[in-house]
Every structure is written in C-alpha cells, then in structure tokens.
UniProtKB/TrEMBL annotation:
This is Probable RNA 2'-phosphotransferase. Belongs to the KptA/TPT1 family. The keyword Transferase applies. Its EC number is 2.7.1.-. It holds the Pfam family PTS_2-RNA.
Amino acid sequence: MNNKTISKFLSLILRHAPETINLQLDKNGWADVDELLSKAAQHKQPFTAEELEEVVETNDKQRFAFNADHTKIRASQGHSVDINLDLLPQQPPEFLFHGTVARFLDGIKKEGLQKMSRQHLHLSHDRETAVKVGSRRGSPVILNIRSGQMHRDGFLFYLSDNGVWLTDNVPSKYID
C-alpha cells in the first residue's frame, strides 16, 4: 500500500469506523499498534510498522499521533466516533478561519457553522490552511471567525495535537 492509501485507511479506522476491522479504540481514541497491523492484514489492508511510522511522520496535516513509546496510535482530531481527546480548553487567537465553498454560505448565514457528524468543528489558525481545506470541495470561500469574542462570550475552544482549533459550533453573528 502507498502512503496515501494507508493514510485514508487510518482516517476511516481511527476517526470513523474502527468496527470495520473489529478494532477497539480506548476512551481517548488510542488503538494498539500491533492489533491495528494484525487486523488490517486480516482485512486485506496489510502494511508494515515501518510504513505506519512513515505515514505518521510525513502526513502533511499530522492527522495521526503515537504515544511516547509508539505502542499506541490515534487520530489527532476529526472523529465521528465518541472519544475524549483529553484536551483542555484554551484561549484562541482573536481570529480563526474556516474554509468552505459558496454553496454552503446560505446555510451558514442562517445556522452558523455546525460540527455536523463530527465531535468538533475545525478552525484554522491561518488563511492559507483554510484555503487548502476549502479547496477540497471547489473554489474556496474563507470565513473569518471572531474567536476571541466567542471565547469572551463563554464558548470553549481546544487545540488539537496537530494545531487545529476545535469548538462545538460558531453562531453566524461571529462570522465575517
């Protein structure tokens, strides 16, 4: 398997559907590396520990992380399965960014930004990252989020291991 294929497989298994290969995640989203490798091979998705290390190390978005001794792995954020990343609330920068496309703007104006099926809504610390995110679905539209004001108004923000800002939702009044 190539790195992109392994990364997509890991995203499915560690973020959304560990049951696909009968893998157990603990309450914090960690999976045993040996069990992951074994179950992936049993389900005709084999890759080596060395390939896994390379995918985690070279993933441009740092989507995955190992524990200190590399015996466990988890996705850094983006889960639709119920886990607790054990992140503490943090004060966000005054502004964060969200990349989307024009066809979603009417809904966003009415409902704000919603986490949908994920555990958190993802926000970027810079416009460049938001452009990359928005570009996945077409011509990007970048929304400026008044995250500092949201925080002062009592909204909670978390910073994932890979630098993505997480929150539950962004009401439209905080979106420019």
